[in-house]
Queue: 2 jobs
Job 1
Amino acid sequence: MILLEVSGMTKQFGGLRAVDSLDLSIEKGQIFGLIGPNGAGKSTAFNCIAGAFAPTAGVITFNNEKINGQKPWDLCKKGLARTFQIVKPFASKSVLYNVMVASFVTTNSRSVAEEKAIKVLESLSFSDKKDILSGNLTIADRKRLEIARALATEPKLLLLDEVMAGLRPAEVDDMVQVLKTIRDQGTTIFVIEHIMRAIMALSDRIVVIQFGKKIAEGTPKEIANNENVIKAYLGEDYAVA
Ligand SMILES: Nc1ncnc2c1ncn2[C@@H]1O[C@H](COP(=O)(O)OP(=O)(O)OP(=O)(O)O)[C@@H](O)[C@H]1O
Ligand SMILES: [Mg+2]
C-alpha cells in the first residue's frame, strides 16, 4: 500500500524554485531516504509535505487523502509527524514533560498522556533521563528527544530531517538501530540525512535531488553507483562494489 505519494510538487520562493516538479511514492513499512547537496530543497520538500508551506503546484496524497495546504497540527492528528533540522525543545522543562506535550495530540487525559510518554521513552531506551531538563541534554539526547516527541503523536509516517547531524560515529550506529526498531514496530519513515553510511544502511529506497529536481532514485546500491549522483553529491571516491 502506498502511504505517501507526491506528484509534480513544486515550491517557489520568489524567483527560486526550491522544489521543482518532484515525484515520489513511499510504501507503508518502508524507510525511504532523501539526499542531495546543501540547498537542494530537501527541508523545503518536508515543509510542504508536513504542512508548514503549501506547495505552489502539485498533489500530495497521504493515506489516500489529498493533503495539500492542510495545517501541520491537522496532519499530525492524521498520523503525519516530523522533526526539525534545528531542535527546539522546551529547554526549562523535563524530557518527560516535553514528550507529554506531544502525547496530548492523541488524548486529553493527563495520566494517559504520561503513560504514553513513558512508553515512548522506554522504546528509545531514554527513560533514565526522563527527569533531566531538556536544556541540559547532549546533542545526541536532544535528537533522541526530538524523535520521542514526534513518536508520541503516534504517527503512521515519521519525517526525520537530519536527526544524525552532529552525532559521533557510535551514536550514529545507535540511531540507525533505533530507527530500524521504530520501523519494525509499524511506523513508516521518510528520512533526510547527509551521513551516507547511515542512509545507505537504513533505506529501502533513496531519492536524490539537486536544485529541487529528482536526479536519481533506487536502492542504496544503485544510488551509490549512479554516475549523476557521484558527480552531483557523493564525489568520485564513493562508488562501491
Ligand atoms: N522560507 C524560505 N524563503 C526563501 N527561500 C528559502 C526558504 N526556505 C528555503 N529557501 C531556499 O530554498 C533552497 C532550498 O533550501 P532547503 O532548506 O530546502 O535545502 P536543503 O536541501 O534542506 O539543504 P541543507 O542540506 O543545507 O539542509 C535554498 O536555496 C534556500 O535558501
Ligand atoms: Mg535542510
Note: The radius of gyration is 18 Å.
Job 2
Amino acid sequence: MDVTQDSRSGDPNVGRAQIEWVRRHSPVLDGFVRRRISDGSLEGKRIAVVVHLEAKTAFLATVLADAGAEVIVAGSNPRTTRGDVVEALRERGLTVVAEPDGDYDSWERELLIAADHAPEYIIDDGAELTMRMSQYRPELFAGLRGVSEETTTGTARLHRMHEAGRLPFPALTANDARCKHLFDNKFGTGQTTVQAMLRLTNRQIAGAGFCVVGYGYVGRGIAQYAKAMGARTSVIEVDPVRALEAFMDGHAVGAARDVLPDATFVVTGTGGMRAIGERDLPFLRHDVVLANAGHHDLEVDVDALAAAASAISSPREQIDTYRIGDRDLHVLSGGALVNIAGGSGHPVEIMDLTFAVQGIGAHHLVTAGLEPGVHIIPAELDDAIAAAKLASLGVELDPMRAEQEDDAADWLSEGTAP
Ligand SMILES: NC(=O)c1ccc[n+]([C@@H]2O[C@H](COP(=O)([O-])OP(=O)(O)OC[C@H]3O[C@@H](n4cnc5c(N)ncnc54)[C@H](O)[C@@H]3O)[C@@H](O)[C@H]2O)c1
C-alpha cells in the first residue's frame, strides 16, 4: 500500500495508514493533549473541525472524538481535501461533510451542511465556517459557544467581527499562540512551500531569482529556506519595518517593478488579495513560476492573468500556463496554498504543535468560562505544549534559579544606603 501519496481516490485503508503515520510522529497530540482533554469535559460536545482535510487534521479530529466529542469535519478549501482520509474518518464513525475533487460551489454547500449540524464549537481556518454561520445561519450562530481559529487571516476576520459587535462568544486565536506561528507559519510553510514549488515544476532553485511577497512569519520562512538552497532571494513588502528586517536578513528588497524582473519563482504570503495583480504583470519575466502560500486563492490574481492571456494551457499537473504577449507565466495549484494543494502540507512534527494548540484550545474554550471576545491561549498552556514537545525530543531544561533573577524589584522598596 502506498501511503506516501496524497491520493484523492477514497480508499479508507490508505487513509487509515496515513492517519496512523501522523499519530506515530505526533507525540504531543497523542500524549500530552490526549491526557489533558480526557477529563470528560468534551463528552457529547459538538465540535466542527474545518481545517484543510488531510491526514494531520484527521488525526486531530479522532483525538477529539476519542475524548468524547461529537465531531463534524469539513474542508477549509476545496482543493485540499483528500479522499482517502475522508473515507477513513467516515469508517471511524465521524461525520464528514467534504468530498474530494469538489469546486467552490460544492464547498460552499458543504460548509452550510456542516453549519446545519449545529456545532457548539468550531476549530476553524480562515473563520470560513464562523463567517458563513453568522451570515447564513444566524439562528445556529446564536448557539455557538466558542471558536478556535487557525490562521492569521481568520484572526483578522474575528477581530473585525468583534469590533462590529458580531461576536457573541469567545474566540481563541490559536495563530497567536507562540507554539503555532513561530513554528507552523515559519518553518512549516517555509519548508513545504519551497518543496511543493520544486516538486511541481522540477525546476532548479540554486542560482535562481526567488521573490517572496509579504515578509511576515510565512514569508520569512519561505525566504529562509529558498536562500539556504542557493536562491537569490528578494522580498516585496508594504510594511517598512518588515521590509527592513528582510533587508537585514540578507534579502534584496524593493518595489515590484525593481525585483520581479529578476525572479524565476514568485510566491505570495500576505494574507491579503491580489498581492500579484494586474499592475505587476508587465514586470514578470517569461517562464516565471507563480505560487501562493497565503490563505486566499486570489493572492496571485488568476482572474487578471486569465483576462490578459491570449491562451491558457496545462503543460504539467497543477500548472496552468498563461500566454501573455510573448511570455508564458506559470501558476501552480490554481493559486491555492501550494504547500497543501500541491504538496503534503506541513511536516507532521509541526502540526503536532499546531494541533496541540487547537486541542488544548478547544478544551480551554469548553472549561475556562471565557467572556465573549477575542482571546489568546494563556501563556502557561503555550509553555506546557512547548515543554511536552521538548520532553518528546528528550530535552530537559534547567529551571531559573533564584540567584539568576534580576534584583531590580529591591530598588522599589525603601532601604538604608550602604
Ligand atoms: N500555507 C500555509 O500552510 C500557511 C500557514 C500559516 C499561515 N498561512 C497564511 O499565510 C498568510 C500570511 O501569514 P503570516 O503569519 O505571515 O501573516 P503576517 O501578517 O505576519 O504577514 C503578512 C505580511 O504581508 C505583508 N503584506 C500584506 N499585503 C501585502 C502586499 N500587497 N504586498 C506586500 N506585502 C504585503 C504585511 O505587511 C505583512 O508583513 C495568511 O493568509 C495566513 O493565514 C498559510
Note: The chain has two domains: 12-180+345-392, 187-341.
